[in-house]
């Protein structure tokens, strides 16, 4: 009888943000596909209580704390990364019991300013340091990586730590360029894009049932993260214009995808004067399926696509452009900080828009399949090392 493989999955956040919860679900699915359905997956999460469906979840050092406790733990972690943090010691023990360490896919290894750089160092880099100390085979699933702020010591430190792992997959070309000196870096699609290919037959079956004309558009909006006042102003003005233009001929719905700490879509809707009780995107896609979704959140976009609903992505960072390039949907993505509402509306309302969307998406299947095979092979190779 084969021995059960034990994997520790690092860097999980919270399923209260459905995009982050989806990344954990997709990571676990990928691990079971690569290593067998009996694989034991221990999850290390910032919000462990939000993953009740998994039996083996542990609080992340620093990130699982809150308020002043979190601040104090972060400071202690920076000065005494091992000895002063009980959760860090527990994490090391867990990692040493594992056959393989895996970093969940996502965009947590970045920083746009000094505050985010401190959070990165005190939180996620602490987990990376533990993985290095445990000296176990380690694979990081598709990431967006690299501080955008001019902080060369942090950039060099992050690149150097990642160079010691078995494989590091990146989901966009900027991240690939950042790690170009690391021989273990490989380009692959976002986890949700990989799942799109795996479920392509099911998705296309749903897509073929869609109405050819667009009469119901759902929006998934969020507060613009880390932008200047001018960028926020352009974003809010353009989204209002887009809602008005589409609302002249379509029914408009609003959906929330995140209610997590400091990341509350409903609060943002209230701040821009949208009343009522928007449902979750997951429920809307099932109970009142729109013809098109316009989403600022990438995983709102991809959740829509996975459910057979075309989605226009107003992207606020590199991961969105990378994902839509992998899907072959270059005409359905724009910069959220500087987009032309008229052009977006024209793309969505074009006479053959829905058919063209799915024709372009299906063209990327082979490229996506190749990326999935590369990740599965890397996981198996690392497990057997």
Automatic annotation (TrEMBL):
Q: What is the lineage of its organism?
A: Bacteria, Pseudomonadati, Pseudomonadota, Betaproteobacteria, Burkholderiales
Kindly indicate whether the keyword Transferase belongs to this entry. yes
Q: Which UniProt keywords apply?
A: Transferase
> What is the source species?
Paraburkholderia terricola
According to the entry, every stretch annotated as the Polysaccharide pyruvyl transferase domain falls at 17-317
- What's a Gene Ontology MF term here? transferase activity
Name the chain's protein. Polysaccharide pyruvyl transferase family protein WcaK
- Record's keyword annotation contains Transferase: yes
Query: Which Pfam family, any one, appears in the UniProt record?
Result: PS_pyruv_trans
């Amino acid at each position: 009888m084969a021995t059960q493989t034990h994997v520790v999955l690092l860097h999980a956040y919270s399923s209260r943000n459905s995009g982050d919860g989806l990344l954990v679900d997709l990571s676990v699915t990928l691990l079971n596909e690569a290593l067998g359905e009996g694989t034991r997956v221990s999850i290390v999460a910032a919000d462990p209580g939000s993953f009740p469906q998994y039996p083996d979840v542990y609080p992340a050092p620093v990130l699982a704390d809150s308020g002043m406790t979190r601040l104090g733990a972060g400071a202690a972690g920076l000065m005494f990364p091992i000895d002063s943090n009980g959760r860090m010691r527990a994490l090391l023990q867990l990692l040493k019991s594992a056959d393989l360490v895996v970093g969940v896919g996502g965009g947590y290894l970045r920083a746009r300013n000094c505050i985010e750089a401190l959070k990165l160092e005190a939180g996620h880099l602490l987990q990376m340091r533990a993985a290095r100390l445990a000296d176990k085979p380690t694979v990081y699933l598709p990431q967006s990586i690299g501080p955008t702020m001019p902080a060369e010591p942090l950039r060099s430190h992050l690149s150097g730590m990642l160079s010691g792992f078995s494989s590091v997959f990146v989901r966009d070309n900027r991240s690939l360029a950042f790690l170009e000196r690391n021989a273990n870096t490989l380009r692959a699609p976002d986890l949700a894009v990989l799942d799109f290919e795996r479920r392509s037959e099911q998705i296309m079956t749903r897509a073929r049932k869609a109405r050819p004309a667009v009469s119901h558009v759902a929006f998934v909006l969020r507060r613009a993260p880390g932008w200047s006042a001018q960028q926020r102003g352009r974003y809010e003005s353009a989204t209002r214009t887009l809602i008005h233009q589409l609302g002249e001929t379509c029914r408009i719905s609003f959906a929330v995808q995140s209610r997590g700490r400091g990341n509350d879509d409903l609060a943002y809707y209230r701040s821009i004067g949208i009343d009522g009780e928007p449902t979750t995107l997951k429920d809307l896609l099932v109970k009142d399926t729109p013809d098109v979704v316009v989403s600022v959140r990438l995983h709102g976009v991809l959740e829509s696509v996975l459910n057979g609903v075309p989605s226009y992505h107003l992207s606020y960072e590199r991961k969105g452009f990378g994902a839509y390039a992998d899907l072959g949907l270059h005409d359905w993505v724009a910069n959220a900080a500087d987009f032309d509402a008229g052009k977006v509306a024209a793309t969505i309302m074009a006479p053959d828009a829905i058919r063209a969307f799915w024709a372009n998406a299906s063209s990327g299947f082979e490229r996506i399949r190749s990326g999935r095979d590369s990740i599965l092979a890397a996981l198996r190779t690392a497990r057997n090392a």
